[in-house]
Amino acid sequence: MEKKQRKLPDSCGLGPALAVIGGKWKALLLWQIHQAQPCRFGELKRLQPEISEKMLIQHLREMEADGIIHREVFHQVPPRVEYSVTPEGAELDLALAPLAEWGKKHQERTEKAKAGAARAARTAAEGVTLG
Amino acid sequence: MEKKQRKLPDSCGLGPALAVIGGKWKALLLWQIHQAQPCRFGELKRLQPEISEKMLIQHLREMEADGIIHREVFHQVPPRVEYSVTPEGAELDLALAPLAEWGKKHQERTEKAKAGAARAARTAAEGVTLG
DNA sequence: TAGGTACCTTACTTTTTTGTCTGTACTTGC
DNA sequence: GCAAGTACAGACAAAAAAGTAAGGTACCTA
Questions:
Q1: Whether A4 CB is under 7 Å from strand C
Q2: Is the CB of B24 under 7 A from strand C?
Q3: 3-state SS class at B69
Q4: Per-residue confidence at B1, pLDDT binned at 50, 70, 90?
Q5: Which chain B positions have a beta carbon within 8 Å of A67's beta carbon?
Q6: Are A107 and B13 spatial neighbours (Cβ–Cβ below 8 Å)?
Q7: How many Cβ atoms from other residues are within 10 Å of residue B8's Cβ?
Q8: B100 conformational bin, left if phi > 0, alpha if psi -120 to 50, beta if neither
Q9: Between 20 and 30 A from A106 (CA), which of A97, B55, B115, B127?
């Protein structure tokens, strides 16, 4: 398994936390599993068609190893595997909420700033044509 | 400037937040600047000798562009540059606190689990030698 | 004139992460 | 027999992030 992960400096607990949730799709997956619990592999795939099967499995396995999700195999044909969040995963989801809040605010500010810059540029252009 | 950043999926605000704080040293830097505000370049370098100058500058510049830190240049000889966190950066630091908490707990759990496994392995080995 | 300090910049290499594609085992349906 | 569906595994390649090493400015001291 590809698991050599860049080691993050410890910054008072943030290192380990970011190591767990830092993957490109992990936060999204945790959130979706938390919503639609329990959740089958194919379901996740359908919910997020952008993510490749390989990354989906890789991330799910790492999250399982980190103890934030639980994987249950039903020995049926066709196979059936269900994912759910562990209590630890639920706590993480909770701890992530303020960060998500901040992210939303930051995004809004950024967009507003961009819009403002565009408006300023237009105004300047008008000024030039009128001057 | 190297800034093409892997695009993170949006997961309800977490995407933008992780884009801002996801760099290897960024959380640490934000935290340190917040502690020792205002903070000179050389100071940060001394506080964290592991990080290369290039990464230090690169991260500082990106954080400045994201509006979470402020950079002030004093035109002196030798040059003097001071970094401080913006209100937005301070909010981010706050939003990061629960995650850091979780990280610490997670780390403890992981270590305990590892210790437990080692103990179990020893016990099993004894069992074998004694049996 | 060489060496030192502070704050970078640039070119280049390595490491890590992500993506693409192909293949597996098994069964149902046509 | 062949396709389709489920839940993966593995080789390989591309992209992104991080690191290394060298240089550059501007002034000051020995």
A1: yes
A2: no
A3: strand
A4: very low
A5: 106, 109-110
A6: yes
A7: 20
A8: alpha
A9: B55
Instruction: Name A129's Cβ contacts closer than 8 Å, sequence gap at least 6.
Output: none
Report whether pLDDT(B100) > 90.
yes
Separation between the CA of A81 and the C1’ of D24 (whole angstroms): 59
A80-85 vs B69-74, strand pairing mode:
unpaired
Sign of CA dihedral B13, B15, B16, B18: positive
Q: Which of B48, B97, B106 sits opposite A88 (nearest CB)?
A: B106
- How far apart (Å, rounded) are the C-alpha atoms in residues A35 and A118? 38
Per-residue pLDDT at A3 exceeds 70:
no
Please, which pLDDT band fits residue A29 given cuts at 50, 70 and 90?
Answer: very high
Query: How many whole angstroms separate alpha carbon A45 and alpha carbon A54?
Result: 11
Measure the N-to-C terminal CA separation of chain B; round to a whole number of Å: 65
What SS3 string covers chain A? CCCCCCCCCCHHHHHHHHHHHCCCCHHHHHHHHHHCCCEEHHHHHHHCCCCCHHHHHHHHHHHHHCCCEEEEEECCCCCEEEEEECHHHHHHHHHHHHHHHHHHHHHHHHHHHHHHHHHHHHHHHHHHHHC
Place of tokens 């399982």: A64
pLDDT of residue B119: 72
Decide the pairing of beta strands B39-40 and A69-74.
Answer: unpaired
Are β-strands B69-74 and B39-40 bridged in parallel, bridged antiparallel, or unpaired? Answer: unpaired
As a whole number of angstroms, the distance between CA A121 and CA B19 comes to 27
Tokens of B12: 């309800």
CB A123 within 8 A of CB A131: no
